[in-house]
Amino acid sequence: MDGAEQISRAAGIIKQGGVVAFPTETVYGLGTNAFNEKSVARVFEVKKRPSFDPLIVHIDNENWLTELVHRIPEKAKILIDAFWPGPLSIVLPKRSKVPDIVTAGLPGVALRMPSNLVALTLIREAGVPLAAPSANPFGAISPTLASHVKEQLGEDIDMILDGGPCSVGIESTVISFLESEPVLLRAGGAELEEIQKLIGKVKVASAMEHISHSPGRCERHYSPSTPLTRLSDPKYIPTELRAGLISVAPIEKKNLPPNIVSVEILSGSGDLREAACNLFAAMRRLDSSDLEVIYSLPLSNQGLGLAINDRLSRAAVR
Question: Is the separation of the CB atoms in 227 and 293 below 8 Å?
Fold first, then answer.
């Protein structure tokens, strides 16, 4: 069965109320008909996701906006024009057509148009927006390959649509327009600096603000089974435990203590886009390396560093 046939099969499953894992440029999503409350409930069940955590609705064209939301503020329209299709989700006041189960009873719905061609074709052939969180158990490392989905969800879903590796590798940025000023709910694949160049200052929600208003805001998230600890200074790596290390840029092995038995360099040049793309896969490899602890080295909050730091901080919570 070729790629087009696979997409048609997946679209047919969604039309019948099924659940399909599919690729986006950010991570693999677990998608179903956003208007079908029963199938959306199954997504929550498969992921073991708490009902207070809303889902992002994926669309293939802007015509859906008039059906899904009441209004689009001018600044939101600017971001839509600049970043869609792409790794930016925008929270807008929802219409009643969007089931409350999708938004966890909240007044806004998060919308995104992915840039991945397989995802866009799937949505178009299914003929409905897809409610789609990441295709992994709640709180676990997000999947960036179809094999990651198979490892974690196995036979619990109806189909895995393999579209190869995700090009961005971390989830979308989420900006809310439910208040008088835009609010960053989750750092992600669209850089905050680029957003602020277009619309001016964006409020950054604190750790405890709007905790239920966006995916990825639970204190513990993206977590490997092996404990992960963030280091403030690479000079002081503990030497007691068999450990792995995550570093954005190259680091000399001779400068590391002997207990560091596995090192994941996210980018040979220190490029943050490459680092973000490789983050979750690197965490998975370390998690399967029989380690007692995983350490991560510090990086700045500039550009995609903000999103990478967010993922590592939440992964480190125990």
Answer: yes
CA angle 74, 79, 82 (to 5 degrees): 125
Give residue 52's pLDDT.
Answer: 85
Query: Which value, to the nearest 10 degrees, does the dihedral of the CA atoms of residues 13, 17, 21, 27 take?
Result: 130
3-class state of residue 299 by DSSP: coil
In this structure, are residues 172 and 56 in contact, taking their beta carbons and an 8 Å threshold? yes
CB atoms inside a 10 Å sphere around CB 207: 10
At residue 249, φ and ψ (nearest 5 deg) are -115, 165
Q: Please, which contacts does 228-231 make with residues 24 or more away whose CB atoms are closer than 8 Å?
A: 228/283, 228/293, 228/294, 228/295, 228/296, 228/312, 228/315, 228/316, 229/293, 229/294, 229/295, 229/296, 229/316, 230/295, 230/296, 230/298, 230/312, 230/313, 230/316, 231/295, 231/296, 231/297, 231/298
Q: What's the confidence (pLDDT) of residue 154?
A: 84
Contact 298, 229 (CB under 8 A): no
Residue 169 burial (CB < 10 Å; 0-12/13-18/19+)? buried
| pTM of the predicted model as reported, rounded to 2 decimal places | 0.92
Which regions in the chain score pLDDT beneath 70?
Answer: 1, 207-221
Report pLDDT for 318. 72
CA dihedral 207, 209, 214, 216 (to 10 degrees): 10
**Alpha-carbon distance 57 to 191, whole Å?**
21
Tokens of 182: 């835009």
| Torsion angles phi and psi, residue 311, rounded to 5 | -65, -45
Tell me the two tokens of residue 61: 């064209």
Is the peptide bond preceding residue 99 cis, with omega within 30 degrees of 0? Answer: no
The string of pLDDT tens digits covering residues 215-254 is 655 666 678 999 999 998 777 888 889 999 999 999 888 8
In contact, 279 and 170? CB cutoff 8 Å:
yes
Kindly report the backbone phi and psi dihedral angles of residue 24, in degrees, each rounded to the nearest multiple of 5, phi listed first. Answer: -130, 175
